[in-house]
Amino acid sequence: MQSFKNITLVGSGHAANFFGKLFVSKGLHIDWVISRNAKSGEALAKKLNSQFLLKSNGLIQSDLMVLCLKDDAIAEFVNQCQISENTLVAHCAGSVSMDVLSRIKHRSVIYPLQSLKGEVDEMEVPFLIEAADKNDLELLSDWMRKLNLIFQVCNSEKRKEYHLAAVFANNFTNAILSATESLSDDFKLDFELLKPLITKTFNSIVEGNSAIEHQTGPAKRKDKDTLNSHLKMLENNKDLQKLYDALSEYIQSLDND
Ligand SMILES: NC(=O)c1ccc[n+]([C@@H]2O[C@H](COP(=O)([O-])OP(=O)(O)OC[C@H]3O[C@@H](n4cnc5c(N)ncnc54)[C@H](OP(=O)(O)O)[C@@H]3O)[C@@H](O)[C@H]2O)c1
Questions:
Q1: Which residues of 141-170 are buried (b: 16+ CB within 10 A; e: fewer)?
Q2: Cα-to-centroid distance, 68 and ligand 1 (Å)
Q3: How many alpha carbons fall within 13 Å on the CB side of residue 221?
Q4: φ, ψ (nearest 5 deg) of residue 198
Q5: In this structure, which residue's CA is closest to atom 47 in ligand 1?
Q6: Distance in Å, CA 203 to ligand 1 centroid
């Protein structure tokens, strides 16, 4: 557990808050929070009982540094900062190759395969990990095992595939539920009546059923009149009309596979 005695978090958004809470819950101490955002950075450092740095001018020395930055800012940060040669540097992005850290000797990735906004049960999050050096990968794996975390070793290409699937599983289903909320508002529906349907949909897949086999509805039945009447009801909302049409076509294409 004590393989990483000094830990630095870079960034102060959702991922930094997630990792901070996780490490503290495991009895680890975070020495530094580095963030360009003084307000959220200082608040996080205070919460974690760490020191805050707005900008790092000197050499950063840590056993582990987790970069919790916007994907596009990772390269800029590592190119501008002086990081000790002995530090294991990890980014935590799903779709960014580990090569973005190529100038770092001990480079790695610790990607949490979960949406980190709001309440997250850290112990249920699966992590995909990767390291350039075989010994670093062993060290990281042993450490995660000792912390009782769920993890798999996964290269950058495979992680990107998981991330793409995660976008469908979370971002897109959430967007569909946003559309449901907005239709419920527009037509003044009682959203409570839709909740058992939403619960059944998600429970079914979590319980191991195949989503393809559980598809129902007018597109699946090819009920053309109903499909057309729904499209007409969305006449004033071209974005949702396009979405309805595209998803209905997709559902019908599944029968041809
Ligand atoms: N959120 C998730 O569900 C999730 C899940 C898995 C992995 N991740 C990964 O976690 C990483 C961070 O995502 P997040 O959700 O924590 O994002 P976030 O909440 O938006 O936080 C991003 C952090 O990066 C900082 N930042 C942005 N642009 C910067 C720049 N040019 N230079 C320096 N700092 C900059 C932000 O500072 P400001 O506050 O000043 O903008 C903020 O501290 C990403 O690589 C993401 O892929 C996120």
A1: eebbeebebebeebebeebbebbeebeeee
A2: 6
A3: 8
A4: -65, -45
A5: 93
A6: 31
Position 133, amino acid: D
Angle between helices 238-254 and 173-186 (to 10 degrees): 130
Sign for the pseudo-dihedral over CA of 97, 158, 91, 134: negative
Residue-level length of the chain: 257
Q: Which two tokens stand for residue 217?
A: 């509805």
204 Cα: distance to centroid of ligand 1 (angstroms)? 33
Residue 83 dihedral angles phi and psi, to the nearest 5°:
-115, 135
Q: How far is CA 203 from CA 120, 196, 206, 251, in A?
A: 18, 10, 5, 20
Task: Please state, in angstroms and rounded to a whole number, the distance separating the CA atoms of residues 16 and 30.
Answer: 11
How far is residue 36 from each of residues 13, 21, 33, 96, measured CA to CA in Å? 11, 20, 10, 21
Instruction: Give residue 63's identity as a one-letter amino acid code.
Output: D
For the segment 192-207, what is each residue's pLDDT rounded down to a tens digit?
Answer: 999 999 999 999 999 9
CB of 17 closer than 6 A to ligand 1? no
Return the structure tokens found at 155: 């290269």
Query: Comparing C-alpha atoms, which of 146, 148, 62, 154 is closest to residue 110?
Result: 154
- Write the pLDDT tens digit of every residue in 42-88: 999 999 999 999 977 778 889 999 999 999 999 999 999 999 999 99
- pTM for this prediction: 0.94
Note the Cα 76 to chain centre separation in Å: 21
